[in-house]
Automatic annotation (TrEMBL), chains A, B:
Domain notes: Consists of three domains: the N-terminal catalytic domain, the editing domain and the C-terminal anticodon-binding domain.
Catalyzed reactions per annotation: tRNA(Pro) + L-proline + ATP = L-prolyl-tRNA(Pro) + AMP + diphosphate
InterPro entries recorded: aa-tRNA-synt_IIb, aa-tRNA-synth_II, aa-tRNA-synth_II/BPL/LPL, Anticodon-bd, Anticodon-bd_dom_sf, Pro-tRNA-ligase_IIa, Pro-tRNA-synth_IIa_bac-type, Pro-tRNA-Synthase_IIa_type1
Locations listed in the record: Cytoplasm
Keyword terms, alphabetized: Aminoacyl-tRNA synthetase, ATP-binding, Cytoplasm, Ligase, Nucleotide-binding, Protein biosynthesis
EC number: 6.1.1.15
Assembly and oligomerization: Homodimer.
Domain Aminoacyl-transfer RNA synthetases class-II family profile: 33-471
Function: Catalyzes the attachment of proline to tRNA(Pro) in a two-step reaction: proline is first activated by ATP to form Pro-AMP and then transferred to the acceptor end of tRNA(Pro). As ProRS can inadvertently accommodate and process non-cognate amino acids such as alanine and cysteine, to avoid such errors it has two additional distinct editing activities against alanine. One activity is designated as 'pretransfer' editing and involves the tRNA(Pro)-independent hydrolysis of activated Ala-AMP.
Protein name: Proline--tRNA ligase
Organism: Anaerovorax odorimutans
Gene from which the chain derives: proS
Length: 575, 575
């Protein structure tokens, strides 16, 4: 492709709205274009890279036995009501009506549709296992779309669904997809880590997130350098503090004026924060968005509440809970802002972290302004509706597997694999007849890859201050020929020769024949990040060119023929 | 691909809802699946054929200088308000709101988006011409979705937009696209005819529809066998009857009891229907869907009103006009159901067909129950707000170019090319600076292909009573190997050998290794319409097979090696 004919609009300035490198660089290279908040289009170079990622995914999915299909983005509400997700999914489900007032959504995921296909098409164990996938446009009406392709409202996703006879079959399908994902992300040039993950709104028993490591990622992962433990912070199990064998001391109300935080009360009383109980207060909502109850969650004072674990413990949708107005909640339950403890609370669901019942003589709020209670003990002084792990595994906490200190890292979730089990097949009636003619629920898995987000993750991991440094496999073009003076016939002819030779060898090559200053061309070539750059300048008379890889600092003056040969070699090796 | 592993669900019965062959066969082969009315998904075989059509389009578009991009399906209302189409498009525009109440639509077409790109990216004549295209999911909230992929609510379309400096540039771009379309539809195996078309809601000056000829098509075209004239019936110009030189006779009111139709009044008075005037009465609506006026349209009694021409003459959106309630309209305008003529009408827009002013002494309704007027003449007895061609070119009418009798045919609109001119660039401010630094509006064209509808059109033209007969170029697989007895090791081995040889040569091959009766397999192979069928049966011991093309009745017993060679040859020639 000749750059003089290509629609290319690079930007010198960093767009105001962009904060992270991938967003900045994808906009500056003109590869993506914002239409409105969270909605992007792909221009020629951006779309080429997306299609390369899609092709890598398609090859590995087919290799792993997947069959590609293509379902609609528009989905009828009825199916979502059947699975129970019409309410559970919350406001991120982008809803619409047709001209007859019938309810639809724009699919954020396709479990319902695929389960619907299978329940009507599959009747016998002989038709299983199956793995169906699609690469398709998905929607999520995000409250705060941001970071360009990282969190957008319309995006491209590969979603696959496996259908097996039993749990052992699901385990095999899951392992195949896990292995395919490792190949896919490796081929895309990503440094990633598969980590255990929460199953969130999709539901199911077991899940891994594939996380591309990156400072700007929105996923926080906890991992252990000693053993193989790695999980999202939402998911990571915590080790409870050992139970105390201390004697229970008498409950004592103490005056603690103005000590509204854990830090203040611990300082005031001269005790450790790990000798206190922290309270967090919530209100919950029903399907009509009416308040339907209060929740008080308690963790040890030095811990942090893990919201995902709390929501899972309550078995409610993520969007149906928020921090309570303490005054309003106080009137109903007896809580007092800054001085709430588990004792003296009423008419609310009390959720207590799993380690608290084992600890003795803790300090907690007295549900009375400027007062705390000392020597609070579970059983004697308070009871719980739910006792479970609701705390966050922090950096330095002991690894739940081996006890070594935990590390944290940030990453971008580029893929996720789920064992759904029979959640959808049971709610939607997808069964098959086994060898004994007995009806059995089909056992399902689902497997997603954020295609557009993967593009952003590649840029996050492959750039420098001058622009993108594409891995060959997903580069929009493999090579760029920069002609210093396109009006010089010798240079133009040599460039044309190299261009034709490379193209004939299957190299995807750009010819920068624009009437621009060399400085502009070099800046654009660096910004666009094309892996191989061949510069045709004064040496053209002697048939020499400058050969440079975008990822290396070195340039070399070599013959045009050697430049062609080296380019073909590296492209064939790395593409 | 082994059929025993493929997700394939063919149907023996004709689905109730399906009326036309493509709909019936695409459902019976399990290639498409209905989700809800007008919304379909593609199963493995269907999706393979769609991707082949997409690839043919992509190759020819790239060859013609197009650059592929990919814009969002979700579009903000603001851009449509700028172009004036938020109202003009009517209820087929599928509208939705985001969580903040902002208005969006699901794009039925992308003129606004592409114009928005170009107005921000293009500033100089040096950046033109440009042709950008995408293959993408489109939406139309049809009142009556039907015929499967023919008229659906979510569908795949290729849309391209050309941007030129001037009309001469647009003419070139248009010709290039026209030529590319001829190649594309030829490669897809379609028999088609490019016909002049109305520009409808998109707007613009000049357009051709590419019509795949088919009895079940929704487009009616008028063509001349003597000259090259071919146009949609909506668009086709009519030849006015020659003006009469007869003397104007005195206006006369006659009693014509109960003669509400043209036929009745002509019979009653003993005159030709071409000596009468036919009235058609309409009400129009404004943007708030309130009635804002009445329209009376008049054509010669033997003519048919052409609704498209009337709407174009009135310069209103298609959805803002409908037949009037004659009683209600009568109170306002003096019209009388069954007895309305152009004389004595008031307070309504009178549109008169172009030939009426030249004719003399016609009979028209008297705007009085049971009475007509004789010797009605334009000028003396009635006037018009608009005089233009609003009649339909019927079969047998004279060709507007050469005068020979016109023929009609039906077809499926698979593509359309438009000269938009400066309609969008002017309303949305897309300009460039010419060589003299003068701002000029960019001159645009747009070019659509219904990808999913093309699939249906191919099936309409290529099937028999047993199923589909795919052209090689868009067949989901090139060849199918039917094994009579998969449990017979000799047969299984030979089939496997042929399968591997064909696959190694790049033939896309299905191996029907299912444990089904041969009759079932043959029926499925015919239904699926795979171009080459190789049957491995008793002859396997002698390494002979049966070779059959789906399109031919003949079968041949030949050696397996010759079967392989012939298959590779025909696939390479026709794919």
């Amino acid at each position: 492709m000749r750059l003089s004919k290509m629609h290319l609009k690079t930007l010198r300035e960093v767009p105001n709205e962009a904060e992270i490198p991938s967003h900045i660089l994808l906009l500056r290279t003109g590869m993506i274009r914002k239409l409105v908040s969270g909605v992007y289009g792909f221009m020629p170079l951006g779309w080429r890279s997306i299609r390369k990622i899609e092709d890598i995914i398609r090859q590995e999915m087919d290799q792993a036995g997947g069959q590609e299909i293509h379902m609609s983005a528009v989905q009828p509400a009825e199916l979502w009501e059947e699975s129970g997700r019409w309410f559970a999914y919350g406001p991120e489900l982008w809803r619409l009506k047709d001209r007859n007032g019938r309810d639809f959504c724009l699919g954020p995921t396709h479990e319902e549709i695929f389960t619907d296909i299978i329940r009507s098409d599959v009747s016998s164990y002989r038709q299983l296992p199956l793995n169906l996938y699609q690469i398709q446009t998905k929607y999520r009406d995000e409250a705060r779309p941001r970071f360009g392709l990282m969190r957008s409202r319309e995006f491209i996703m590969k979603d696959a669904y496996s259908f097996d006879r039993d749990q052992a079959g699901l385990d095999r399908s899951y392992e195949e997809m896990y292995a395919a994902y490792e190949k896919i992300f490796t081929r895309c040039g990503l440094t990633f880590r598969p980590v255990e993950a929460d199953t969130g709104a999709i539901g199911g028993s077991n899940s891994h997130e594939f996380t591309a490591l990156s400072e700007v990622g929105e996923s926080e992962i906890a991992y252990c350098e000693k053993c193989q433990m790695a999980a999202t912070v939402e998911r990571a199990e915590c080790v409870d503090a050992p139970a105390s064998s201390a004697e229970e001391l008498p409950l004592e109300e103490v005056h603690t004026p103005g000590t509204k935080t854990i830090e203040e009360v611990a300082d005031f009383l001269g005790i450790g924060q790990d000798e206190t109980i922290k309270a967090l207060l919530f209100v919950t909502y029903d399907e009509e968005e009416k308040e339907n109850g209060y929740v008080a969650a308690f963790v040890r004072g030095d811990r942090e509440l893990n919201m995902t674990k709390l929501i899972n413990a309550l078995k409610i949708p993520e969007h149906s809970i928020e921090f309570a107005d303490e005054e309003k909640m106080g009137a109903a339950t007896g809580c007092v802002g800054g001085f709430t403890g588990p004792t003296r609370l009423h008419d609310c669901t009390i959720v207590v972290d799993s380690e608290l019942p084992g600890l003795r003589n803790l300090c907690a709020g007295a549900c009375k302004t400027d007062y705390h209670l000392k020597n609070v003990n579970y059983g004697r002084d308070y009871k719980a509706d739910i006792i479970t792990d609701i705390k966050t595994l922090k950096e330095g906490d002991p690894c739940p597997v081996c006890g070594a200190p935990i590390k944290h890292a940030r990453g971008i979730e580029v893929g996720q694999v789920f064992k759904l089990g029979t959640k959808y097949s049971e709610s939607m009636g997808a069964t098959y007849k086994d060898e004994n003619q007995k009806e059995q629920p089909i056992v399902m898995g689902c497997y997603g890859i954020g295609v557009t987000r993967t593009l952003a993750a590649v840029v996050e991991q492959h750039h420098d201050e001058n622009g993108i440094i594409w891995p060959m496999s997903v580069a929009p073009y493999h090579a760029i020929i920069t002609v210093m003076k396109p009006d010089d016939q010798t240079q133009a002819d040599l460039a044309e020769h190299i261009y034709n030779e490379l193209a004939a060898a299957g190299v995807e090559v750009l010819l920068d024949d624009r009437k621009e200053r060399p400085g502009v061309k070099f800046k654009d070539a660096d910004l666009l990040g094309i892996p191989v750059r061949i510069t045709v300048g004064r040496g053209a008379a002697d048939k020499t060119i400058e050969y440079k890889l975008r990822r290396d600092a070195d340039k070399e003056e070599i013959s045009a023929d050697e430049g062609i040969a080296r380019t073909i070699e590296i492209v064939n090796k790395e593409k």
